[in-house]
Amino acid sequence: MKRADLSKRPDEVAGMFDDVAPAYDRTNTLLSVGNAPLWRAATTRAVAPKAGERILDVAAGTGTSSASLGKSGATVVAVDFSEGMVAVGRKRHKKIEFHVADAERLPFGDDEFDAVTISFGLRNISDPRAALSEMYRVMKPGGRLVVCEFSTPPNGIFRGAYRTYLRYVMPVVVGRVSSNPEAYKYLNESIEAWPDQATLSQWIRAAGFTRVAWRNLTGGVVALHRGHKPEDPVIRASVARRRASRRRPTRAAS
């Protein structure tokens, strides 16, 4: 299968994830040197799910993160654009509601979820800022956002060692354990092309979220970003006007 480039055509990226779905979680644990379960636990704690809440897990893959959230008693809805990933998730996690859907056009109404989270999926979306706006739209006022994503280690020496791992060590491991090494080559490139913590925080604020902050995990290899949808209707109205002005077509000069 052709490897998708960083223009991230949704059909090609989804196809890659379809190919690697059966062994995806096992391969990720290996490639993260055992850190993937720790990152998932940190994300679950940041979301702080509670019984009775309705939580949306975007780019949920096979639902491993969704299952972790669901242990609280919350109702978890999982969304992914890969039919292969969703098929595996439905077999593994019978109590979770799965949808095949585009994160830029979520199939839900306004103000439906108490929390929205996405782990290692935002960088694979064609327009991540549009996806953040959709997450804001479907979230209840006062709701919380948690984004777990690969990031930029602030320490120069560690950053150099990490990039060496991505470019030279990880491809060797992938070649031995993955059924589709080209898919993971794309993932490597997407990690290196992804913006740093401060830039992603700016995107989250621009989507309308307040109280935006991040925390580095594993020396900044991964960062947990948080935000909240304002409860104040005046602030939400201001966000809505700003979005409307961006969508409004400009009149051609006469």
Overall SS class: alpha/beta
The beta-strand count equals 7
Biggest beta sheet summary: 7 strands, mixed
Provide the low-confidence segments as ranges. Answer: 1-6
The helicity comes to 40-55%
What's the helix count?
Answer: 10
Adjacency order of strands in the biggest sheet = 3-2-1-4-5-7-6
Per CATH, the superfamily is: Vaccinia Virus protein VP39
* Number of discrete domains: 1
- How much β-strand is present in the residues? 15-25%
Provide the residue-averaged pLDDT: 87
Shape: globular
Radius of gyration: 18 Å
Distance between the termini: 49 Å
The CATH architecture comes to: 3-Layer(aba) Sandwich
Protein name: Ubiquinone/menaquinone biosynthesis C-methyltransferase UbiE
Keywords: Menaquinone biosynthesis, Methyltransferase, S-adenosyl-L-methionine, Transferase, Ubiquinone biosynthesis
GO molecular function: demethylmenaquinone methyltransferase activity
Binding site for S-adenosyl-L-methionine: 62, 80, 102-103, 119
